[in-house]
Amino acid sequence: MTAPTRAVRDLVLDLPSDGLPAYVYDLTALREHAAGVRAALPERVELYYAAKANPEPELLSALSPYVDGYEVSSGGELAHVGRAVPGRPLAFGGPGKTPAEIAAALDLGVERFHLESLHELRVLADLAADRAPDTPVGVLLRFNLPLSAASLEGSSLAMGGRPTPFGLDPADADTAVALLTGGTLPQLRLLGVHAHLASGLEAEEQIGVAESVVTWATRLAARHRVRLTEVDVGGGMHVDYTTPERRYDWSTYGKGLTRLLDDHPDLTLRIEPGRALTAYCGWYATEVLDVKRSRGEDFAVVRGGTHHLRTPATKGHDQPCSVLPVPSWPHPWPRPAAGSDTVTLTGQLCTPKDLLARHVPAPGLRAGDRVAFGLAGAYAWNISHHDFLMHPRPGFHFLG
Ligand SMILES: *Cc1c(COP(=O)(O)O)cnc(C)c1O
Q1: How far is residue 277's CA from residue 69's CA, in Å, rounded to a whole number?
Q2: Which of 27, 81, 178, 359 could serve as 62's disulfide partner, Cβ 3.0–4.6 Å?
C-alpha cells in the first residue's frame, strides 16, 4: 500500500465518478523530494532531470529550482522542454538523432550533445560548421562501457556492458577523441564522457558504476593528453515498487560521489535521473466499477486500466495502491463486494494483460470504492497506449 498525500486523497474523494480516472500530481511533495535529493548531493554534482520519465510542463517547472538542467532525448522533448522551462540548460541525448533534430538543437542553443556514434559526431560537425570557433558546441561522448557483471547484477534494464545500440563502442573511443581534439573540428569542444548503463541500481552499485566510468574516462584523457572536465554517469536510480515507502539511498550515493570527486578535483560529475525523481509524486486514481468472483478468486474491474497506466504491464509488477472507501451506494440492489481477503484489480480492456495489481489485500472492497495507484509519476501516462479500445482519457490535476 502507498497512501496518497492528504491533498491527493481529498481531491480523489471529491471528484465525481465521471471525473475518474485521473492522474493527480502533488507538486509540493515533488518539490520536497527534489530538495532532499539535491541536498544529499555534493555541490560539484550537477543534477539533470531526464524528461522522458515524465515531461508534464507542471513537473518540469516544479523541478526547476532543484535541478541544473534537463536531459532530452528527441526533437519533440527538445522543443517541449525548451518551451516549458525556457532558458534552462539542456543536454541532448538519445540514439538515432535526425539531422533536423540536431539542427533544431543547435538553433535552440543546446549546451551539450551526448553523441552516440562516429556518424552522429560527423553530422553534428557538419551542421555546426559555420559556428564561430570561440563558441564551440559542447560534446560528451556516450560509451557502452565494459562494467563488471557484479555492478550490473541488480539492474532491470541494462543499456551497457553488453551488445546494445546505445553509445559508442569503447573500441571507437580513440578515433572519436582524436577527431575531436585534432584541430580539424574547432566548432566542437569535447567536454567529457557520458554513460547511462543500467536502470534499477541501488546506491552502492551506482557508486561502483560511477567509479568505473570515471576511471575509464581518466585513462582515455591521459592517453590523448587532453582534459576531460565532465563525466555524466546517467540515471537509473532504483525505485522499489514492492516497497513504495523505501526510497533510493541518496545520502549514501551523495557520500560515494563526494569521495570520488575528492580524488578528481577538476572534475564535474553529472547525474540524470528520471524515475527516482518523479515516480513518487503521481497517483492514478479511479473507482471500482464492479466486483466479481471467478473460479474462487475476486476481481475488481476499475474505470481505466493499463491503457492509462502501462507501468505494471511493462514491468510485470503489481502497481502499489490504496483503497479509499466510499460509504454511499446509489442503487437499490446489493453492492458488489469482495468476499475473500485479496482482490485482483483489472482495467476495462478486453485483454487478460490489463492487470493493474494482483492479489491486493483489500478485504471487503466494494463497487464504488475508490483506488489510488501510487508511484505513477514516472513512465506511466506517457508510455501508455491511450487509444487502444477508445476509452476516454483521464483527467489531470496538479496540486500545490
Ligand atoms: C532513460 C534515461 C535516463 C533516466 O533513466 P531513469 O531510469 O528514469 O533514471 C537517463 N539518461 C538516459 C540516457 C536515459 O536514456
Answers
A1: 13
A2: 27
